[in-house]
Amino acid sequence: xxxxxxxxxxxxxxxxxxxxxxxxxxxxxxxxxxxxxxxxxxxxxxxxxxxxxxxxxxxxxxxxxxxxxxxxxxxxxxxxxxxxxxxxxxxxxxxxxxxxxxxxxxxxxxxxxxxxxxxxxxxxxxxxxxxxxxxxxxxx
Length: 140
Prior knowledge:
Blueprint lengths: L1 H34 L8 H8 L23 E3 L2 E3 L19 E4 L2 E4 L20 E2 L2 E2 L3
Antiparallel strand pairs: 1-2, 3-4, 5-6
């Protein structure tokens, strides 16, 4: 019985040590990847990224990638596919960010908290004669 307990404890220590070493080596790989050029970086993640043929297909080199089904949008901004008609980080054009309380509606930043034509969201109109306050029609 004592021998079995000893083996269980030894196994647990060995597993803990191996996990700790793999985590610390992964952190070291991340640090070396950030400091070293991509051609000399080592590790599983960089190996997979180098051998992934679709990983190098960015929209700045292949604009048609953004028009594929499942793409976030048809426009390319900073190597990412976006929809400049509805993206708050690229509203109307690349890099045009909407402020807090605003949403990108039709390529324009609109204050959805007080705009009666876009109250609480794009194309949510308040009824005639009512107003938009805090994103709700005729609040109060």
